[in-house]
Design goal:
Helix content is 43%, strand content 8%. The protein is mainly alpha-helical and 74 residues long. A two-stranded parallel sheet has the order 1-2. Helix 1 links the parallel strand 1 and strand 2. The relative contact order is 0.20.
């Protein structure tokens, strides 16, 4: 069955919820695709929470990250 699932964790504050959801999603035979499921940390934030979504995609490092993530998902 192993249905592929992209499950990125874009907020480093969501560690507990992300871990619990990962466990729940693996029960119905989902296979989490790690190359499409990055995990944010304090050292490696995946977006700047001080600006809007639009402003995040205008920051080159975040734009490149999201573009690469989307290419992996599609």
């Amino acid at each position: 069955m192993d249905k592929p699932l992209a499950f990125p964790n874009l907020s480093f504050r969501a560690d507990a919820a992300y871990s619990q959801m990962t466990e729940i999603l693996q029960i119905p035979s989902c296979k989490i695709m790690t190359d499409c499921s990055p995990k944010a940390t304090l050292e490696n934030p995946l977006f700047n929470s001080n600006v809007s979504e639009y402003e995040n995609i205008t920051i080159p490092e975040f734009f490149n990250f999201f573009q690469h993530l989307w290419e992996n998902i599609v």
